[in-house]
Amino acid sequence: MNFYRRTQTIISKVDVVTTSMGNGINVRSFAKEEKLDIYDWPINTTLLDGKYDIGVVVSFGRLIPEKIIKCFPLGMINVHASLLPRWRGAAPIIYTILNGDLTSGVTIMKIHPRRFDIGEIVKQHSCSVGKDETADELKKKLSNMGGRLLIDSFKELTRNLRYAVPQSENEITYAPKVDKNLSIINWDETDSNSVYNKYRALCGLWPLITTWHGTSIKLLKVCNYQTTNIDTQLKPGDLIYDKQSQKLFVKCGGKGGYVSIEKLKIPGHRTMSGKDFFNGFVYMKPISERKFNSTHVN
């Protein structure tokens, strides 16, 4: 609400429509602290007619009916955490990191009924994505950017809406809702960059999952590992310990490469480093049995 306090001449009234589930709980709590009027979703149009100029949607995850959009003389706009039309859908930040994108940003767009993320672009702003940046870190960066861009959109709002441009039909990609199965590593098919990108995309949500001799284990911290002095006969999933760097690394499939296991968790044991895992579990096995396998999430 700092933007709201600094722009009283632009925004004279803000109220909130939210749910009582998920992120809606946090939104509701914040709105109460700010002494904003709170409406429950789904909302009756009689509560909106003639009271507001424009509706704003952020991370709501629900299609807005046409009758709701029409309650606002200027329609409704959405703050979306990607450079549309790239990454339409519920999880744009995760897919940005998962695919190793080096650029991201925020889009302010018009809301249309019946379909997500297809509206005309009111404003966009881009930013770089660091090669080691996580989804949580990018989310914080885009949240701040989105707030500033939204306020900027309110300046000359009618003009900005009038000159909104249609999205390109040639560069559309989708970012559907993700589930826990995405955290599984298929060592045979996944190269080191993809494993590391998956870790960066999911580390604030779920740990990566693999199997050690029939036991599902959680990989809590993974890094891309650069090395040249490696046995070329290694197969995907094979574990090797580098005494010089004191790192445990895994051979990856696909285009190849290696990732180091910095921290992991085995059921019934404390969280441990890759070195401790090697000394306590891997070292006692024959070399042919020192490997991870893929697993399934129940």
Automatic annotation (TrEMBL):
What is one GO cellular-component annotation here? mitochondrion
Keyword Transferase set for record: yes
Q: Which Gene3D superfamilies match?
A: 3.40.50.12230
Q: Report whether Nucleotide-binding shows up as a keyword of the record.
A: no
MF terms (GO), sorted A to Z:
methionyl-tRNA formyltransferase activity
Q: What is its EC number?
A: 2.1.2.9
Keywords, ordered alphabetically: Protein biosynthesis, Transferase
Pfam families named in the record = Formyl_trans_C, Formyl_trans_N
Which intervals hold domain Formyl transferase N-terminal? 49-152
Question: Mind telling me which InterPro entries this protein's record contains?
Answer: Fmt, Formyl_trans_C, Formyl_transf_N, Formyl_transf_N_sf, Formyl_transferase-like_C_sf, Met-tRNA-FMT_N
Tell me where in this chain the Formyl transferase C-terminal domain is found: 177-281
- Which family does the UniProt entry place this protein in? Belongs to the Fmt family.
The identity of this protein, by name, is Methionyl-tRNA formyltransferase, mitochondrial
